[in-house]
Automatic annotation (TrEMBL):
<keyword id="KW-0460">Magnesium</keyword>
<dbReference type="GO" id="GO:0005992">
    <property type="term" value="P:trehalose biosynthetic process"/>
</dbReference>
<dbReference type="GO" id="GO:0004805">
    <property type="term" value="F:trehalose-phosphatase activity"/>
</dbReference>
<dbReference type="InterPro" id="IPR006379">
    <property type="entry name" value="HAD-SF_hydro_IIB"/>
</dbReference>
<feature type="compositionally biased region" description="Basic and acidic residues">
    <location>
        <begin position="276"/>
        <end position="291"/>
    </location>
</feature>
<keyword id="KW-0378">Hydrolase</keyword>
<protein>
    <recommendedName>
        <fullName>Trehalose 6-phosphate phosphatase</fullName>
        <ecNumber>3.1.3.12</ecNumber>
    </recommendedName>
</protein>
<keyword id="KW-0479">Metal-binding</keyword>
<comment type="function">
    <text>Removes the phosphate from trehalose 6-phosphate to produce free trehalose.</text>
</comment>
<feature type="region of interest" description="Disordered">
    <location>
        <begin position="268"/>
        <end position="300"/>
    </location>
</feature>
<dbReference type="InterPro" id="IPR023214">
    <property type="entry name" value="HAD_sf"/>
</dbReference>
<dbReference type="GO" id="GO:0046872">
    <property type="term" value="F:metal ion binding"/>
</dbReference>
<comment type="pathway">
    <text>Glycan biosynthesis; trehalose biosynthesis.</text>
</comment>
<dbReference type="InterPro" id="IPR044651">
    <property type="entry name" value="OTSB-like"/>
</dbReference>
<dbReference type="InterPro" id="IPR003337">
    <property type="entry name" value="Trehalose_PPase"/>
</dbReference>
<comment type="similarity">
    <text>Belongs to the trehalose phosphatase family.</text>
</comment>
<dbReference type="Pfam" id="PF02358">
    <property type="entry name" value="Trehalose_PPase"/>
</dbReference>
Amino acid sequence: MSETPPSRLEEHLPQIRRTLAGGSGLLVCLDFDGTLAPIVDDPEEATPLRENEAAVDRLSSHPAVSTAIVSGRGLPDVRDRVGGLDAYAGNHGLEFVRNGSVAVHPVARKRAVLVDQVCSALETVLEPVPSSRIENKRLTGTVHTRTVPAPLRPLVRRLTKSIVDRIGGDQLEVSSGRRVLEIGPSIPWGKGNAVELLSAELPRDTVAVYVGDDVTDESAFNTVEPNGVGVRVGGDRPSAASYRVTSPADVAAFLTWLESVGLEELDRSPGLVPTEPERPVERTTASDRRLGLSSETADD
Ligand SMILES: O=P(O)(O)OC[C@H]1O[C@H](O[C@H]2O[C@H](CO)[C@@H](O)[C@H](O)[C@H]2O)[C@H](O)[C@@H](O)[C@@H]1O
């Protein structure tokens, strides 16, 4: 991961316009929890902001734009929560649906039986821990610790790791996310690979945008940067994304800006792009200024 904190997006719209001006189309990839939907205690209750749904719908209906959700949730789950995108990647990119056909990583498919055994064992072992919750997503599993009393979280981590070691051996691994432990196959595959696959099907000069809030989104930021636009939702901790916004409401403002301002840049043929002044003068338009972003919040 980059050691550089991302810059505040609203201060860098002219750079983003220049990045978009290099492309003939746009691929907009979006994480779900913490990006389109605010983080909530109960994962079942997570719902995208209406403004995000509307902005995604508008982008999806534009002929120059392809849209995708790239989520840690299982595919059926995330498709139920937000509709209308061109493609969906679930389980951190291990499964995919596009043009009506579903693809699953073959190694992940084989190891799903181990994930299932781990989830069952954890249901029993963590049963006495108040408010612990196990989400079996078939190809991966999630242990939720958001509502577990803080002093008990290290115990949950230890128990989870020991069960995964016992049942999964070197076939499974545990990683951390926002108040979750993610259990999945130990293979070098993540959201970044999913974004690569999506990009590979589009013209080479398509500009890729990725918006996400969590550690697993870093591989996707690495995939789209530096020719595309990586946007981290959250505070100023280091990230491979160049830009950051604070909240899902800010994501809606950015997506709206992309549709109303950013897309205009794509339409300019290279010969028509105004030459840059010698000393760059940042072109901030009234539409740029309307991008109202909220104030800082803590990452957790
Ligand atoms: O890649 P994402 O779409 O962001 O999915 C990552 C995980 O998101 C969900 O957990 C997170 O959101 C929950 C609801 O707001 C919250 O309670 C939890 O603490 C967060 O980590 C989802 O439940 C997981 O399956 C995803 O892996």
